[in-house]
Amino acid sequence: MGQRLGSRWRMRMTKFAILLLGLISADGAAAQDADWTYKATIYGWFPGMSSSVDTRFGTVEADSSSSDALSDLDMAFMGSFSAQYGRWAFIGDLLYSDLSSSQDTPFALYGDGTVDVKTTAISGYVLYRVVENPQMLLDLGAGFRHFDVDVDVALSPGRRPAASQSFNGSWTDPLIAARLSVPINDNWFLSGFADWGGSGGDDETWQIYAGVGYAFDEKWSTQFGYRHMEISKELDGPDMSIGMGGPVLALTYNF
Predict the structure, then answer these.
(1) Cα–Cα distance measured from residue 93 to residue 87, given in angstroms and rounded to the nearest whole number
(2) In angstroms, how far apart are the furthest CA atoms of the chain?
(3) Three-state SS across 207-254?
(4) Cβ atoms 164, 131 nearer than 8 A
(5) Which keywords, in A-to-Z order, does the entry hold (predicted)?
(6) Going by fewer Cβ within 10 Å, which terminus of the chain is more open, N or C?
(7) Helical segments of 44-192, H only
C-alpha cells in the first residue's frame, strides 16, 4: 500500500514538474529583461505544541498553548531568504526550535509525561507567479523540507520509578506550495503561504501562514500573522505526530 501511494505521489510531482517546465518556456523572453531582487527575513514564532508519541509504555500525548510558548521554548532560531527574478522566486527557510510540554499520563503507574521535541526544518522552494495584477500576486511551485527531529519522552515517578525513551530521525519530503500577496494600499498588505507534502507512505507534513504586513519604505517591512505546521512520521518504529501553531512577528529587508 505504501509503495502504491509513493508511486502516485511521484507521478503527481512529475506532472507538476512538467507544468513548471512549460511555464519556463512560455516565460523565457520576459525573464531575460528581469532584474534580481532579494528579501532577508528574521522572525519570531511562538507556537503551542500538540504531540502524540507511541512509546513502549503506551501513547504519550502532551499539549501546550501559544500562551505557554515562551516558558516551553528552550531555544529557537528562524529566518528566511528569497530571490525574485521576473516571475520566478527562489526561497529558503530555516527553523530550529526546542519545545517541551507536560501532561498527566493515562498510565496509572506513572505521574505526568513530558515530551521534549527538538526540530530543525530546512525548506526550499521554486515558485512561479501565475497571477500578477494590482489586486493580487499569486505564486505556485514545488520544493522540499528536510527534517532533523529528536524526541525525548520522560515519565515522572508514580507507583513505578521514573522512565524515559528517546527517538530521532532525519528525512526529506517533497512539497507543493502556494504564496499569496494582496495589497491594501501603498503601505499595508495581506500575505499567505501554504505547502503540503510527504512520501505518500509513513510521513506527511503541511503548513499554513496568514498575516498582515506594513511597509515602512521600499526596503523595510514588518508582518504579523499566524503559522501552523504539522509533522507525522514513523520514528524508529513508533508513530509520532506533532502540531505547532501560534503567532508570528517578522522583519524583512529588501535589496
Answers:
(1) 20
(2) 73
(3) EEEEEEEEECCCCEEEEEEEEEEEEEEECCCCEEEEEEEEEEEEEEEE
(4) no
(5) Signal
(6) N
(7) 69-72
| CATH number of the 2-254 domain | 2.40.128.90
3-state secondary structure at position 184: coil
How far apart, in whole angstroms, are the C-alpha atoms of residue 60 and residue 177?
32
Number of Cβ atoms within 10 Å of the Cβ of 157: 11
The phi and psi torsions of 9 (rounded to 5 degrees) equal -65, -45
Q: Position 18: which residue type?
A: I
